[in-house]
Every structure is written in C-alpha cells, then in structure tokens.
C-alpha cells in the first residue's frame, strides 16, 4: 500500500474526474513506484513511524566517538546504552540529517567491541509532510504521462513537437526530495 500520496491526489493533478476509473489500477501501481523511488532517492528506511528498542551496534576501533543509525529518517532518540549503562542525555547528541549519534566530549569514546552500543529510537513519519506527498504525486504524474508514450524521446510533425524527459524523477520533485535526503558523514563512506 502506498504511503506518500493517494490515487485521488494523482487523478486531481492529472485532471481526471473521480468517476473515470479506467486508469485506477495503473495509478495504483505508480503510487507504489513513487514510494519506492522516494525511499531509495532519500536513503530512507521507511515512511511510516516505527519504534526500535535497543538496536545494537558494533564499535570497531577504540577511537570511535560517533556512529550512524541504520534507519532513517530518525524522529527521536530516547536512549543510548554503552555496555549496558545508559548515557545521560547531556553526554551525546543526535544529528538529524545524517542519523548520527555523537559524543559531546571529543576526548571520550565508545567502548570497542561487538554489539557494544544499544540505541532506542523512532524513525519514519507519523504524518507524511505535505511537500513530500506532493513530490510523490509529481513522480506518479511523470510516469503516467511517460507511460502513454513509452520509448518516445522526440516526435515532430509540422509545428507539433513532443519529447520525453528521461529522468525518472521530475526536477521539481527532485528539489523537494533534496530536503529529505540522508546526508552521510564523510567518515561513513
């Protein structure tokens, strides 16, 4: 089931009346395509809100003072435990755009070892942001319009001209998605 936008939104944007149902099954497929496109482009784990309790992380070296959470977008971090001991909230902070937990004091480090750090957090959206839903609608519209002319890159007859943008994500949708793209710290690449 699509989470970002709805068939009604896509039909409204295309100018297709609600009573016209011949394209509904195709639009439903495009809704799923739009969700997966947005998730993939932005580096998201999921769109709907999910709470993770005690997800464990390996600390490979003795000089690690930060690590990146597996899931994104992270909306809240409730606890960070190292070796079974809960860290106080004033000893660490969370970078929202990268999903990175960092220790505040540069001279402190996480304990090295397998599954040394456990984090409880929530990721995904309780309510999908309106601009993200609009970007998904734009992606659906783009695929719908391209689908009727699959393979055509240019067409001309007299003064009539037609060409199709080959990019699966329209520029206007890409601009919106840029606000939701996970930024990976350079050390994690």
Description:
By secondary structure, this protein is α+β, with helices and mostly antiparallel strands. Helices cover 28% and strands 26% of the residues. The radius of gyration is 22 Å and the shape is elongated. It starts with 6 loop residues before the first helix and ends in a 12-residue tail after the last helix.
Percent of residues in helices: 25-40%
Q: Tell me the major beta sheet.
A: 4 strands, antiparallel
Q: What value does the Rg take, in angstroms?
A: 22 Å
Number of helices: 4
Q: What spatial order of strands do you see in the largest sheet?
A: 1-7-3-4
- Give the topology string: H per helix, E per strand: HHEEEEEEEHEEH
Note the beta-strand portion.
Answer: 25-35%
Distance between the termini: 32 Å
Structural class: alpha+beta
Shape: elongated
Mean pLDDT: 87
Question: Runs with pLDDT <50, length 5+?
Answer: none
- The count of strands amounts to 9
Give a concise summary.
The protein has 189 residues and is of the alpha+beta class. 28% of the residues lie in helices and 26% in strands.
Q: What topology does this entry show?
A:
Blueprint: H1 7-14, H2 24-42, E1 50-59, E2 66-68, E3 74-82, E4 85-86, E5 92-95, E6 100-103, E7 113-123, H3 130-147, E8 155-157, E9 160-162, H4 171-177
Antiparallel strand pairs: 1-7, 2-6, 3-4, 3-7, 5-6, 8-9
Short key terms for the protein model shown above:
single chain; about 190 residues; alpha+beta; 4-stranded antiparallel β-sheet; 3-stranded antiparallel β-sheet; 4 helices; 9 strands
